[in-house]
Amino acid sequence: MHSIAMQRLNSGSDSISQVEFTEPPLICGLPDDIARSCLARVPRKYHALLKCVSKRWRDLVCSEEWQSYRLKHKLSETWIYALCRDKFEQVCCYVLDPNSSRRCWKPIQGLPPRTLKRKGIGFEVLGKKVYLLGGCGWSEDASNEVYCYDASGNTWSDASPLATARCYFASEVLDEKIYVIGGLGSNSSSPHSWETYDPCTSKSKSQSDPNIVPEIEDSIVMDGKIYIRCSTFVAPSHVHAVAYEPSSGTWQPSDADMVSGWRGPAVVVEGTLYVLDQSSGTRLIMWQKETREWVPVGRLSPLLTRPPCQIVAIGKSIFVVGKGLSTVVIDVGNARNMEGVLLSSSIPKIKLTSDDDVISCKCLAI
């Protein structure tokens, strides 16, 4: 009798254990794969609410699986992230949902305190994360620290450091890695060095190339190559560019014709290079590869833009973001002029009194 009772007791404890470790379904009455498919179709602006429903929903919304599913099924939505400096000379970040019926920039809270006073910080996006890289201060040498913002979880964390401490450098993403290029640092070789930073493996590999100079003013990725635009102390008015060829792993001088018109913030839209020329007013020009010449697209109304501006693109729409985050949107797929001025829509700046300077803008899709 005693052994039978013990068997029943053990059997009962096994059942209890199975119940305890069986996860509840995402949605009652639905298999998890169907529930996941339903939830993935919820617009991104409601994802913060989804995370409040249950721990399983929160874990799902914050997972790489969630982002991959939405990207694969063309459900992802792209938001714009801006790195700025306010009137107190402190770094700040903002985010814009361009699809919202009430489009406006919103501040991102909780920036790492050590970054707030730094200059020359790198700002890059990879996957669903935003990275703040390096930087320096008045009484602080160049840093190799990296901080990461998870856009789905709305959280900041430390990330693995750069191989070389540096500030005022260029950064671009290519083949799922962040390329950190040139800049100033405590190491004398830093101005001519570049490194590939892989957050997934926490590895960073530094290399040198004499074609890289410290005075990098802009960078783009086009046709599978990274281009950096530089100037020199010898001839400040002279601008040249070098391109990184992944197949050979080398940096080579770029086409002089293309570089001649690249004198402002640039963005690539469906393989075409657009540049915001701010030398006299604000106008958009484009590089035509076939004829190898720069062609004017049109001028922007001086009533809408507040230079100096940065530009970023989602689809065929170019967002011109100026002081105070005043934003002008141009559809280059259907660009039209009225007496030489581009027709565009605008997004009001964050505050009527805001004069935040925009350092960089990046896109992130979830």
UniProtKB/TrEMBL annotation:
Record has Repeat as a keyword: yes
Gene3D superfamilies from the UniProt entry: Kelch-type beta propeller
A Pfam family the protein falls into: Kelch_FKB95
Family matches, as InterPro entries: F-box-like_dom_sf (IPR036047), F-box_dom (IPR001810), Kelch-typ_b-propeller (IPR015915), Kelch_1 (IPR006652), Kelch_FKB95 (IPR057499)
Record-given protein name: F-box/kelch-repeat protein SKIP4
Keywords carried by this UniProt record: Kelch repeat, Repeat
Organism per entry: Morella rubra (Chinese bayberry)
Domain named F-box: residues: 30-69
